[in-house]
Design goal:
This protein has helices at residues 5-10, 56-67, 86-99, 117-122, 138-147, 162-178, 192-202, 232-238, 250-253, 256-266, 355-369, 376-395, 401-407; strands spanning 47-52, 76-83, 111-113, 128-131, 151-154, 182-184, 209-218, 272-278, 293-299, 305-312, 319-326, 329-332, 337-340, 345-347, 399-400. With 443 residues, it is α/β, with parallel strands linked by helices. It folds into 2 domains: 5-17 and 40-188 and 357-372, NAD(P)-binding Rossmann-like Domain (Rossmann fold, 3-Layer(aba) Sandwich), CATH 3.40.50.720; 190-351 and 384-407, Dihydrodipicolinate Reductase, domain 2. A 9-stranded mixed beta sheet has the order 14-13-12-11-7-10-9-8-15. It has a 6-stranded parallel beta sheet with strand order 3-2-1-4-5-6, sandwiched between helices. The longest helix has 20 residues, at 376-395.
């Protein structure tokens, strides 16, 4: 199958060539001396962690990082925390102290708030940072973490625009050059039912792929109403899910999981998207600027199609899953069952550890052993798949990957200050501009 890798790399500063893995020191097999440990191996010493972004997912990810100690992977301690808002940081700290009382060492002097809090936390003596802010901040936080020589676990998605994807790809290469380990929160790649199902499909259980389908259809997420006296920047930061410079729309923030599974199965990334979407139900001022539904037809370089749906509509059927069709059968990937022509059936019936924990165990194992481990490129490319779909639904146009990457679309604000103007502002009635297919440009 012809790969779309060239399209990603050509139009980003990430890698003008192949990914560079660290040169690991190897012992001479003929020598009686023990081989030197791999570069940057941290062994069984205590690992010091900083949490950047103290919301629910950040708190959960920090807890999973600390739980690696219970998996026999050596001592871990949380020593620094950062968030834009002090109330979120303090709530997270109390929860973590309740769950891991002996592993929390975050005195007041190592609790940082504001837009530059991440820099202060990373300036502390830490080995690994957990990045779990709204995804619009992920590229600059990841870029800084790698520049500071930190190992990283970062939540998905890793960007909200093409410029951010380019930054992450560039930092991913730098991480390889420095021998740093990077995990990304696409936990299905660490989930046993997915691992076994995908491998069987790759081994030809349903023949050649003819069609992929994936869904994240649900009732939607929280709304945080505006409070008296809030600046516009503060309001959008608190209500981040509904603004593209922070969230990227739910096709990026949530549906990336399903898109990534399809990319994983194909071993490639779509080169083109076309589709439609809009706002039919979640149309209030409080719903910002994002759509409540997207339907996208993706095309891979081989010509294979992937049909993608995501929806935020209360009271509707909820489906979060992926399906594959082939010349000799079909598979419910999330359901971990396969049916082939002729009546042959398979269903996963094995044990399944918590994949959110497994992804941290895998990362921390690599950090301690010094073995190559970098999921940033995978995260960036599947993030760009979701962005490509958003570009297509917002514009109503056929959008090609190479053109989208070349556009360098950048949704970030000019200034990161609470009294600064965010990239999108409401009109005199409090309503935000909504993308209009046929009028809104793709990028």
């Amino acid at each position: 199958m012809k790969s779309s890798r060239r399209s990603f790399l050509k139009y980003s500063s990430a890698a003008l060539g192949a990914s560079v893995l660290p040169n690991l020191a190897k012992g001479d097999s003929t020598s009686e001396e023990k081989p030197e440990p791999p570069a940057n191996a941290l062994g069984d010493r205590e690992l010091r962690v900083a949490l950047i972004g103290c919301g629910g997912r950040g708190t959960g990810a920090a807890s999973q990082a600390l739980h690696t100690a219970g998996a026999g992977l050596g001592p871990v301690k949380l020593v620094a925390m950062a968030d834009a808002f002090s109330d979120r940081l303090e709530t997270s700290l109390r929860e973590l102290q309740g769950w891991h009382p002996s592993q929390i060492d975050v005195p007041e002097g190592r609790r940082f708030t504001g837009f530059d809090a991440y820099k202060k936390a990373m300036a502390e003596d830490v080995d690994l940072v957990v990045l779990a802010t709204p995804p619009g901040f992920r590229p600059i936080h990841f870029e800084h973490a790698i520049a500071q020589g930190k190992h990283v676990f970062m939540e998905k998605p890793v960007a909200v625009d093409a410029a951010g994807v380019g930054k992450v790809l560039a930092a991913a290469r730098e991480a390889d050059e420095k021998g740093l380990r990077v995990g990304v929160g696409l936990q299905r790649r660490h989930q046993q039912r997915y691992l076994e199902t995908i491998q069987r499909l790759k081994d030809g259980a349903i023949g050649d792929l003819t069609l992929l389908r994936c869904y994240w259809n649900s009732g939607g997420v929280w709304v945080r109403p505006r409070e008296a006296g809030q600046s516009e920047m503060t309001y959008q930061m608190r209500n981040w899910y509904y603004f593209n410079w922070l969230c990227g729309d739910h096709i990026t923030e949530q549906h990336i999981h399903n898109l990534d599974v399809c990319n994983w199965l194909v071993g490639d990334y779509p080169v083109q998207a076309q589709g439609q979407g809009g706002r039919l139900v979640r149309t209030g001022i409080e719903h910002g600027e994002i759509f409540d539904h997207h339907m996208v037809e993706y095309t891979y370089a081989s010509g294979l199609k992937m049909l993608s749906q995501c929806r935020h509509m209360p009271g509707t059927n909820s489906t979060v899953n992926e399906f594959a069709h082939g010349t000799r059968g079909e598979a419910n990937i999330g359901g971990a069952n396969i049916e082939s022509v002729g009546g042959w059936k398979w269903r996963f019936r094995g044990d399944e550890p918590n994949p959110y924990q497994v992804e941290h165990n895998d990362l921390f194992t690599a950090v301690r052993a010094g073995t190559p481990y970098n999921e940033a490129e995978i995260g960036a490319k599947s993030t760009m798949t979701s962005i490509l779909g958003r570009m297509a639904t917002y514009s109503g146009q056929i959008v090609r990957l190479d053109e989208a990457m070349q556009s360098g679309q950048d949704l970030s604000p000019k200034d990161y200050q609470f009294d600064a103007a965010p990239p999108v502002l409401p009109d005199e009635n409090g309503r935000y501009p909504i993308p209009t297919p046929g009028i809104t440009p793709a990028f």
